[in-house]
Amino acid sequence: MSEHSNESTIAAANVALAHVHSERLREALAALAHFGARADGGVARQTLTEVDLQARRFLIDRARALGCTVEADACANLFFRRAGRTNQPPVLTGSHADTQPVGGKLDGAYGVMAGLEVIQALNDAGIQTERPIEVVAWTNEEGSRFGPGCMGSSAFVEPAKLDAYRQVLDGEKTSFGTALDRALQAIPDVPRCALQRPMAAYVELHIEQGPVLERAGVPLGVVTGIQSVRWFRVKVTGVAAHAGTTPMDVRADAMAESIALAHRLMAEARHYEDRQLRLTLGRWVVAPNSINTIAGDVEFTVDMRCVDGELLARFAATLQEMVASHAGRSRMVLEPVFERAPTHFPSAMTALLEQACASASARAGQPAPLQLTSGAFHDAMYLAGHCPSAMIFVPSKQGISHNAAEETDHADLVLGVQALAHAVTRLAGA
Amino acid sequence: MSEHSNESTIAAANVALAHVHSERLREALAALAHFGARADGGVARQTLTEVDLQARRFLIDRARALGCTVEADACANLFFRRAGRTNQPPVLTGSHADTQPVGGKLDGAYGVMAGLEVIQALNDAGIQTERPIEVVAWTNEEGSRFGPGCMGSSAFVEPAKLDAYRQVLDGEKTSFGTALDRALQAIPDVPRCALQRPMAAYVELHIEQGPVLERAGVPLGVVTGIQSVRWFRVKVTGVAAHAGTTPMDVRADAMAESIALAHRLMAEARHYEDRQLRLTLGRWVVAPNSINTIAGDVEFTVDMRCVDGELLARFAATLQEMVASHAGRSRMVLEPVFERAPTHFPSAMTALLEQACASASARAGQPAPLQLTSGAFHDAMYLAGHCPSAMIFVPSKQGISHNAAEETDHADLVLGVQALAHAVTRLAGA
Q1: How many domains does chain B have?
Q2: Of A40, A174, A364, B165, which residue is the least packed, with the fewest Cβ within 10 Å?
Q3: Does residue B2 belong to any structural domain of this protein?
Q4: Contact: B259, A262; criterion CB under 8 Å
Q5: What is the CATH number of the domain that holds A280?
Q6: A130 assigned to some structural domain
Q7: Cα-based distances in Å from B367 to A237, B372, B394
Q8: Is the ipTM of this complex over 0.90?
C-alpha cells in the first residue's frame, strides 16, 4: 500500500472532498437506475442481460465524458481510468452495476457512481494525483443469474477461475461464456486489459445492507473485515405416511426430526450471540408437503457466519456431531455446500478510511465513524487477496436490501462519497 | 339396526362366507385396476375423470351381469342392488372407486369389488335375503381433484351440501357440478334414485392404511370409531433480511420462531402418545426460501388427531395458548382449517362385525380380530350419521397407502370379504 500522509496530499484530499457535488450524485444514481427500472421503484438489472449491456454503454460514455480512458478485461469488468502523474499501479475504487432479479437502486450502483463522482470532483478541483485512479464496475457480483457471485472480481484476482465460470448456465441454458462474449462484442471500441493487473489499493463504498449503522445513528462505517461463512445442507429421509393411520411410535417423521435438530442448533447458537455468530435456516424443501401426510423427505440449509473463524469452525463441528449422533428413525446426512474464511482488512487501510470518514463526518457535524464487520460478501473480499483493500459503509434504512425498498438518506450517500474522495486522493497521492 | 341372530340367518351367513371365491376376487381387483393403471403398478383414477367414467361403466355392466339393478343419485353415487324378499331399507356395503393422483389398487376399490363378490357368493349359494343388499361406489372420496373428500357420502347423508360442492373447481377450472353432469349424462340407462334414502345399515371393508394390524400379526380388524381431527394453519410473519448483515438480536426470523413453536408443540404431544394423540406438521411454505435470507414468512399446518375428542380439544387449546402467548418479534396467527368430531360406531354393529371376523379368522386358523380406531377418514364416517355403520380393516403392508406400493396379502383380502359376506348376510336376514 502506498500511503501519502504528507501535508499537501491531506490538503488535496480535503479539497477533493469539498468538491463532491450532492445534486450531481443524485442525478447520477437516478440515471443508472433507469436501466432496468421497475414500477415499484426497484431495479432489475441482472448481469449481462440486454439492460445491463445498455447500462454498461451508459457508464462508458459517462466516464469518457469525464476524460477517462476505458478498458475491459476478459471477464468484462470495466475500468474507467483517470491518468496520474506516473504510471504506477492505480488506486482502484468502484463496485458492481448488476442487481438481483429484484434489487434496489443502491446495492453496487452506489459504489460505481461514487467512483465517477470522485473523478469529477478531482477534475473540478484541478487536482492531479501521482498514481492513476481507476473506477471499476465488476461483472456479476450478485450471482443470481450465474452462480457463484463475485465472478468478475474473483476472476480478476485468480484468472484460472474463468474457464469454469464460462461453463456456468443460466436458467435459459445460456452459458456465462456466451453472455460474456456478447458483452465484449458489444463494446468493440473498448480495448482489452489484463486480468490480475497490479493495483496499489482498492476501496469499495457500499450500502451496509444491515441495520447496525442506522441503529447506532452513525452515517459512516469503516469495515474491518468480512465474516467467515459456512453453508451446509441437511438431508433428512424418513417415511411418508398417513397422518391419521400411523401411530407416533412407528413414525419416521422427517420434519419432526428436522425440527428437533434445528431447535438444538439454534439453542446452541444462542450461547455465541454476543460473539457475533449468526445462524440462518433459510431454505426448506418438504415432501410430499401435504397437511395430512407425514413428511418423508426434508432438506434444509444452514448458513452460519462469524468474524471469528475459529468459533465458526467449532460451531460447524457441533453441527456435524449433532447430525452424526442423531438417534431418530430417519436418516440424516450433512452436506457442506460452501465455505469462506474470514477476511481481515489491513489496519493501515482501515486507519486511512477512518480518517477519511472522520473528516467527512466532522465537517457535517455528524458522529465519528463506527467500525463494523460485513456479513455480506463483496468484491473487496476477493480484492483483499490482491492488494490492500477495505470498505466504507453507509446506512441502509431498516437494514433492507435486495429489495425495491432499499434506501439511504441522500445526505449519508453524499458523506460516503466525500469520505471516498478523501481516501482515494490520500492513496493516489497529490 | 335390524340384526338377525336367529339360527337360520347365522347358518346362511356361514354359507355365504364359504362361497367367497379367492381367484374371482383376485381377477375382479385386477380388472378394476386396469382403469388408470400406471407403469409402476399404481393406479391414477381421480374422481369423474375420463378413466373414472370408464371404470364406472365397467362396474355397472359387471353388477348387471350379477343380476343387480343399478341406480345413481344426484351426486353420481352408484348403487348396485340385489333384491331381497322385502322392500325394506337395504343393507349397504361398498366404498369408493376413485384414487389419489397416484394411488394403489386397493384403497376404496377393494371395498367395492368385495361388495360385488359378496353378491356373487350369495348368488352361488342360492341365498335369498330378507332385505335388499346394495353395493355402493361413492363419488369423490379422495378429495384430491375436488376438495373436500367424501363428497358423495356426505351429500348422500346431507343433500343440502351438494349445491356448494357443485361450485368447487379443479386445477383446470372445471367445476364439480359440470363433471357430475357429464358423469350422469354418460349413463343415460341408469335411473336416478334419491339422496338420503333410508338404509338399514352400512358396512365398509377397507385396507387399514396404517401399520397396526401387520405389526400385531392379525389379519382382520374391527373399527370401533374414527379419530377426531383438527387442522390448523400457523402463519408467522417476520422480516426477510440478509443472513450475513443482520445481527441475531434484531431479527424477526419467521422460521426460527416457527421451529421454536413446533418444538414446544411436539414436546407437549409426547405426553399423550400413550393416549393415541397424533401430531403431524406436514406442510411448510417458507418465503423467500433462500439459503442466505432470513425467512420473512412461514406457514405450516398442524394435523392433530385423537379418538378421545376431549383430549384433542385440550391439546388444540394448548396450541392456541402457545400462539397467543408467543413472545418473539414475528407476528403469529393461528387459523382453524377443519374440525371433525370423533365417530363412535355403535357397539351392536361392532359386535356383529366382531363375530363375522371371528368366524372368518377361526376357519382359516388365524388369530381373533383386533379392535382398532381409524386415523383416516372414510365414507363410513358420514354414513354413521344416517344409519348404523361400522368398518372392517385388513392389513396394509408396512402401513403404506396413497402409493403405488400399497399392498395386502391376498389371503387377508379373501378373509376380509368372507367376514363382510357373513356380516352383510346377518344384517340382511336369511
Answers
A1: 2
A2: A40
A3: no
A4: yes
A5: 3.30.70.360
A6: yes
A7: 35, 15, 13
A8: no
